[in-house]
Write a structure and sequence with these properties.
Layout (H helix, E strand, L loop, with lengths): L5 H12 L5 H16 L16 H18 L12 H8 L3 H14 L1 H8 L3 H5 L1 H25 L14 H4 L2 H18 L7 H18 L18 E2 L2 E2 L1 H9 L3 H19 L3 E3 L17 E3 L6 H22 L34 H5 L1 H4 L11 H4 L12 H16 L8 H8 L3 H18 L9 H37 L5 H4 L2 H19 L8 H6 L3 H5 L2 H6 L6 H16 L9 H8 L4 H6 L10 H7 L48 H4 L12 H30 L3 H17 L9 H15 L6 H8 L7 H5 L1 E4 H4 L7 E4 L1 H26 L36 E4 L2 E7 L5 H6 L19 H12 L13 E2 L2 H11 L20 E5 L6
Antiparallel strand pairs: 1-2, 3-4, 5-6, 7-8, 7-9, 8-10
Helix pairs in contact: 1-2, 2-3, 3-4, 3-5, 8-11, 10-11, 10-13, 10-14, 11-13, 20-21, 20-23, 21-23, 28-32, 32-33, 33-34, 33-38, 34-38
């Protein structure tokens, strides 16, 4: 204790307050705390990361340190006396929602330390995204459970006419609801060990609802077996309970019966209750229900004594399971007395847990759901049938998921697991080897995406996992064949050919199709594992590859439910905004062909994508056996290129000669989209690369336009500012593309807003821009708090290496020096056209960087050659309009009027009046008087020129905020001579 700092003493006290203090756990946690302090990651008490200061901020760090050690330390994460996440949060007085909201930022800040201590794969071992999605699902399921429970059972004893309720039962109403949730948690532990998808868990809740309908005392019922709305399926023997529940909750009857069998087995194994066939029992309160095939348990919950015994047993069993996994205590969702969940939702790319309901007409109306120009075409009426069977019934996230799963179950699952005769004919027209390879590829890739193996040692768990994986593979395979056939028909019509060899032999195309099909299966079942973009790694493709196929996939599956269309739209936005720009993207392979000027930078920083791995490599990596397949299926031993090396020549169509793509027309033929930029003899080459880049840039501009419009409305800016910001972003995308490398496009958009505001003399601060950005649905705090910088590419003296900085540092150090000339040109073009009524821009570009609806930005405008003016006889401070002869000096010197200034921060902030007063006081020797802009004196050009050259050596990272003014045609630069005291 004597060698510990005050911070470490407080951390020790926190560790001792945990239910089971463990010296090994404490030692590892303290080592991590010291390593974080050594790397200066712990900010001072004036900082604010978790929405609080001082002690609250410290508690966030303590909580994450304990959680990292709990999840990442080998030899401790599996100990039986482990600490759970809820115990850590109770000790640090944090809520679950707060914890998950701040997790991405703390993971980023501590990433370098965690890599050093736990290896490069620490994020995969931490499974932070999976844990957060699990929490979201449980939040939705708990709300769903409470709702369906209330539909069948009493939730209150306020009714005075319920005289049959005995005193022994009155106090136990919440216990019946709690019993159902604990039985559901046991089902998740034992039956859904790995694949805890939302569909399977919903089936589990419905199965438990069926068991409770059979066992809850009749005095607690809120239903009658004669209710035709609750029980729509009836037979000669009475109500078909399973069929009625399946009809009401969109579950599969086969799956529900299987899940009920698992639940009944848990009651036997955990609660030691003896089952009997309900048809052999005489239960008076179950009259009117068809008892065939149903199981009944005596003394399960007939009175308060049996119920309490069952609850205690389930509690103890879950405690044992929780200690072994150390994750979230899922009982908190029915422990309403605990203030641990927190309020609000997890937004900004993750599912919102608020559970807000949407009316059916809002869900089914294409006009009311269109939120982006990137949205795919509206669904056909057939797809709306899978959103809700009962018009007028409000949809919830769970009910929408179940309706979507019904589409997969009723439309896709009945299809054959082999290519149809028409698809076989299309594939065979390119050669029998193509047909065989398509089948082999699909089997290998889908088995890599949905593997059979699991870390569990229990044979039943392995069997369950294998069955689940096989069913998902079959669904993805059938969807792949169905959409592939439709795509081939459309492609043949577009190209006016019958032989599609060039497309059908393209390895990237097929893997993208398989990845897209598998992703839709994952999205339908709402799985916790394999969250996007994990499917890219399993298939060996990149985000840029997948972005080429999404639009065509949606267009060619007319029955695709609206929720899945939205999911693909959301994926495309995520690809465009950041994932495509990450290191290792095939975007860079096409970019250096289309724009050779970027070759040196792309190669220097190692941004190029690796070659796509061969099928044999994928099979070997995932331990996939190819036994049982056709003998004539050949297995290439080489690293797989973009095409198979077949004897059939690719189709050459003179109509596919390169032209600048235009938006709002038919999508680019897939044959051209997937042509390799490095294989001109296979239809690729420079023209192919340019076409792919232009189409991609068009999508970027459309996405940016949506987000710029949102910010303009939130900030209440003018149409002129919107057009200027849009034009500037297009110029940057075309002429300063490197600014997007390894960054998020919103980071560039935010900087464009501030740059335009500065040069347009708007009273707009970065804090106000960030405040408006927080309201955007895609906002994540790490976007403006962690911007990637590679100092070796920014030519900054004395700075090397790579790091993440806040948005203001990026703006000052990288953005302004790079786009200064573009900013001036765009602003000048905007100013000269201000008097004219500009047509509404269509947000399109043709690859040249031209801003639609505005004239091409002219060069820097000529300014009158006026002498500088001295602001006051008592102070050596001057203001001067810049002449055209000094433009070059301006561009190379620190143009401080462009930069983010003192007092402007995303956290700390002073109002403009206080900022300017402080600066005036500083310049006036801290005398409380303002600078006199009226009493001026003429000063020679030579003096200003020498002052300009002397200032070129100053530090641009410390810009001065002044009351300097600009006119629409000139920039006024505020200067201070050398002999002025600092």
């Amino acid at each position: 204790m004597e060698d510990l700092s005050p911070l470490e003493v407080r951390f020790l006290q926190l560790c001792k307050s945990l239910p089971s203090f463990d010296e090994n756990f404490y030692t590892q946690s303290m080592d991590l705390l010291k390593e974080i302090r050594k790397n200066h990651l712990l900010p001072d008490t004036s900082s604010s990361i978790g929405g609080g200061e001082g002690e609250e901020l410290e508690m966030f760090w303590f909580a994450f340190i304990l959680y990292w050690v709990r999840r990442l330390s080998e030899g401790y994460s599996g100990k039986a006396n482990g600490v759970s996440l809820c115990q850590i949060l109770r000790a640090t007085k944090l809520t679950i929602v707060e914890f998950f909201k701040e997790m991405p930022q703390f993971n980023l800040r501590a990433g370098s330390v965690l890599v050093k201590l736990y290896g490069e794969d620490w994020e995969k071992k931490l499974e932070a995204k999976e844990l957060q999605m699990n929490f979201v699902h449980l939040s939705l399921l708990s709300k769903y459970y409470k709702r369906v429970y209330g539909e069948f059972f009493l939730s209150s004893y306020a009714d005075g006419d319920k005289k049959n309720v005995s005193a022994s039962i009155k106090g136990n109403m919440s216990n019946y609801q709690r019993f159902g949730w604990l039985l559901f948690l046991a089902l998740r532990v034992y039956a859904f060990r790995r694949f805890k998808d939302l569909v399977a868990c919903t089936n589990g809740l419905v199965s438990i609802l069926a068991i409770m309908i059979l066992h809850v005392p009749p005095c607690l019922r809120n239903f009658s077996t004669h209710d035709s709305k609750l029980f729509v399926r009836r037979g000669n023997k009475g109500v078909d309970l399973i069929g009625s529940l399946c009809n009401k909750y969109d579950t599969s009857e086969d799956e529900l019966r299987k899940t009920m069998d698992k639940t009944n087995n848990l009651i036997v194994q955990i609660l030691k209750k003896k089952p009997c066939l309900l048809s052999e029992c005489k239960i008076e309160h179950l009259e009117g229900i068809d008892t065939d095939g149903l199981t009944y348990f005596q003394n399960l919950m007939e009175n308060s004594s049996s119920l309490c015994t069952s609850l205690d047993t389930l509690e103890k069993d879950y405690d044992d399971a929780l200690r072994n996994k150390g994750e979230l205590d899922e009982r908190v969702f029915v422990n309403e007395e605990e203030n641990l969940l927190g309020s609000g939702g997890l937004s900004g790319g993750s599912v919102n847990i608020s559970g807000a309901k949407r009316k059916f007409d809002a869900t089914a109306s294409p006009a009311k759901t269109a939120t982006s120009p990137l949205s795919p075409p509206t669904a056909s009426p057939i797809s709306c049938n899978f959103l809700c069977d009962n018009v007028g019934v409000a949809a919830t996230p769970v009910s929408t998921t179940m309706a979507t799963a019904k589409w997969l179950r009723t439309v896709i699952s009945p299809l054959p697991s082999e290519p149809s005769s028409e698809l076989e004919q299309i594939l065979s027209s390119a050669g029998r080897e193509v047909f065989n390879h398509v089948i082999r590829r699909a089997r290998i890739i889908l088995r890599a995406i949905f593997p059979d193996n699991t870390s569990d040692n229990t044979q039943s768990a392995n069997m369950m996992d294998s069955v689940w994986a096989e069913e998902r593979r079959e669904e993805a395979l059938k969807l792949y064949y169905r959409v592939l056939e439709a795509m081939c028909r459309v492609e043949a019509q577009i190209l006016h050919v019958s032989n599609l060899s060039s497309l059908l032999t393209n390895e990237r195309f097929h893997r993208c199709m398989l990845a897209c099909s598998a992703e839709l299966v994952f999205a339908t079942h709402k799985t916790v594992i394999m969250l996007f973009p994990a499917v890219l790694e399993r298939t060996g493709i990149t985000a840029f590859d997948l972005s080429k196929v999404i639009e065509s996939f949606v267009r060619n599956e007319e029955t695709l439910p609206r929720e899945l269309r939205r999911h693909l739209n959301s994926l495309e936005e995520r690809l465009l905004e950041s994932i495509v720009w990450e290191k290792g993207s095939s975007l860079y392979n096409s970019l250096i062909v289309a724009r050779p000027a970027f070759s040196s930078e792309v190669n220097y920083f190692g941004l190029l994508a690796d070659p796509i791995p061969s099928l044999d490599t994928v099979a070997a990596h995932n331990n996939i056996s190819c036994r049982g397949q056709s003998r004539d299926v050949q297995s290439p031993k080489r690293i797989c290129g973009d095409h198979l090396n077949l004897s059939t020549s690719p189709v050459k169509d003179p109509k596919l000669a390169f032209k600048s793509p235009k938006l709002n027309l038919s999508p680019l033929p897939l044959q051209s989209a997937f042509a390799s930029p490095t294989h001109p003899n296979l239809g690729g080459g420079v023209a192919s690369a340019e076409m792919a880049i232009n189409v991609f840039f068009n999508k970027i501009v459309k996405l940016a336009a949506v987000r710029i419009n949102g910010l303009v409305k939130s900030l209440q800016l003018s149409q002129q500012i919107r057009e200027t910001v849009q034009c500037l972003l297009q110029q940057i995308l075309s002429r300063r593309t490197e600014l997007f490398f390894r960054r998020h496009i919103d980071q560039i958009i935010l900087c464009c807003f501030y740059g335009v505001a500065k040069i347009s003399q708007l009273s707009l601060t970065f804090k106000e821009i960030i405040h408006a950005y927080r309201k955007q649905p895609q906002c994540k705090p790490q976007i403006f708090r962690h911007v990637f910088i590679d100092w070796s590419s920014s030519h900054q003296n004395g700075k090397t290496g790579q790091e993440h900085v806040d948005i203001i540092s990026f703006y000052n150090e990288i953005f302004v020096p790079s786009v200064k000339s573009l900013l001036v040109a765009v602003h000048s073009a905007s100013a000269t056209s201000k008097a004219k009524q500009l047509p509404e821009p269509n947000h399109n570009i043709d690859g040249t960087g031209k801003c639609p609806g505005s004239p091409r930005p002219p060069p820097f405008p000529s300014l009158p050659d006026l002498s500088p003016k001295k602001l006051s006889p008592a102070h050596n401070v001057y203001v001067s309009p810049l002449r055209s002869s000094k433009v070059d000096a301006l561009i190379t010197l620190p143009s401080k009027s462009y930069y983010a200034c003192v007092g402007e921060s995303t956290r700390a902030y002073q109002n403009p009046s206080k900022d300017l007063t402080a600066i005036n006081n500083h310049l006036n020797g801290k005398v409380n008087t303002k600078l006199d802009f009226d009493n001026v004196a003429i000063v020679s050009d030579s003096l200003v020129s020498s002052s300009l050259h002397r200032e070129s050596d100053s530090d641009i990272s410390a810009p001065i905020t002044t009351a300097a003014a600009t006119t629409s045609n000139s920039l006024l630069e505020f200067k201070q001579s050398n002999n002025t005291s600092d």
